[in-house]
Amino acid sequence: MKANYPVEFMTALLTAEAKDTEKISQAVYECRRMGIKVLQPSINESDVGFGIISESDSLEKKAIRFGLDAIKNVGKAAIEEILKSRNAKKFMTFSDFLSRVDTRRVNRKVIESLIKVGALSLFGPRAALLANIDKIRGKVSRPKGPENQDSLFSQDEVVSDLKVEVVEFDKSIEEFSDDEIQGLERQLLGFSLSAKPINEVLEPIEHLASHKIQEIFTQEFSEETVRIAAVVSDVRVIVTKKSGQEMAFVKVRDETGVIELVVFPKIFQTTRNSWIDGKSLLISGKVDIRDDEPSLLVNAISTSEEENGILNGISGAKDKSSVVYIKIPQEVDVEGLKLLKEVFIENPGEQSVTLVFEGNTKSRVNLPVKITWSESLARQISTILENKAGLN
Predict the structure, then answer these.
(1) Helix (H) and strand (E) counts in the chain
(2) What is the pLDDT of residue 223?
(3) Given this model, what pLDDT does residue 307 score?
(4) Which has the higher per-residue pLDDT, 158 or 119?
(5) pLDDT by residue (tens digit) across 54-97?
(6) Where are the domains of the chain?
């Protein structure tokens, strides 16, 4: 199904997992990997579940529109009311929307949530819409009759005859920053649709990771120390009963999956300012398996800024003798490896190199040469691997 009907399959999967933010997030990243665009919720286009719409620059010229049911605080009653009101005609303005929906079902909390995730962005910037909810509702909202009681006029008559007052509002209010918008989306969707694809976010540090998260779940480990590049998605701080100190349970993700980190008090005390939602980190830790579910016991972290020499002073700061892991596709031949060797020799330094050969065995080879990692070197390596593997 996934191979032959990729967009339909992923749409069904997203709808089925609408209430599980972790699985939704993983499915969205998989869509991006496949070249399928996932679009933010829209008050005029979104249905209960996820839907397919035409989009020229998406796989098979079909994109997936986010469903209303996957937005926190937007319940069944609110969705039914929105769709019922929209059936007559699409909402034209913010005041049109507020005047036509039953405010007992589509209350202020629902409206705020719709604005924050971008479902009402066709009516104006998010900050301006949030600032003017009460002003517009006060002018256009009309009292509704008791539920299940017919009004004097039918719904069709109201829609056709009622001329809604268009309330102008100040749209010049400064819009939220990109980070703030991404934070709002993560709060209500479980992740951010506006954020860069996670592989782009992790690109500056992924060469220093020894494993992807999915590999930790699929390979056998015996208290082995690994290093992953991942983005923070959830932080839960607790106070230990024994010592009264703070520690944290942190969920992080890369493009392959999600894993929980255990950050004990000693490490948490020196790294607490780095556990921020959406922050990319390089994390070293020991694999711990409980009830067949792996987690990482963190022993050091560093940020992408530290790895680039911008910041200093927290646990796990840049180590000039660190190991660079380079994944070699199965299709790369001996000639390709010789070209890599030449490039390594031309960029001497203090960082060790480990080649990870993709395939069933995932064999690793530690090279005798040391290099200095840079963007220029990264581009040269990528060019060689892509040309030799025939990759896109």
Answers:
(1) 15, 11
(2) 65
(3) 58
(4) 119
(5) 999 999 999 999 999 999 999 999 999 999 999 989 999 999 99
(6) 6-189, 196-319, 321-392
The tokens of 138 are what? Answer: 């006060």
| CB half-sphere exposure, 97, CA atoms < 13 A | 26
Region of 313 please: left (phi>0), alpha (psi -120 to 50) or beta. left
Q: Is the dihedral of CA 72, 75, 81, 84 positive or negative?
A: positive
Q: Is the pLDDT of residue 353 over 50?
A: yes
User: What are the C-alpha distances in Å from 141 to residues 35, 154, 168?
Assistant: 42, 18, 15
For 214, 224, 330, the CA distances from 44, given in Å and listed in that order, are 37, 51, 47
Cβ atoms 136, 129 nearer than 8 A: no
Alpha helices of 89-153 — where are they, by DSSP H?
Answer: 94-100, 108-116, 126-131, 133-140
Q: How many CB atoms lie within 10 A of CB 252?
A: 26
Q: How confident is the model at residue 5 (pLDDT cuts 50, 70, 90)?
A: very high
Cα–Cα distances in angstroms (integers) from residue 366 to residues 53, 147, 324, 388, in the given order: 48, 71, 10, 21
The C-alpha atoms of residue 174 and residue 308 are separated, in whole angstroms, by 32
Mean pLDDT on 258-280:
92
In one-letter notation, the amino acid at residue 182 is Q
Q: Which residues pair with 300 in a beta bridge?
A: 284
| 57, β-bridge pairs | none
Region 186-207: what's the mean pLDDT? 84
Q: What tokens does 239 get?
A: 């106070």
pTM assigned to the model: 0.67
Which residue, among 151, 137, 67, has the nearest Cα to 106 in the 3D structure?
137
Q: Contacts by 78-82 with C-beta closer than 8 Å and gap 24+?
A: 78/105, 78/106, 78/107, 78/110, 79/48, 80/105, 81/105, 81/106, 82/43, 82/106
pLDDT at 117 over 60: yes
Fold of 196-319: OB fold (Dihydrolipoamide Acetyltransferase, E2P) (2.40.50)
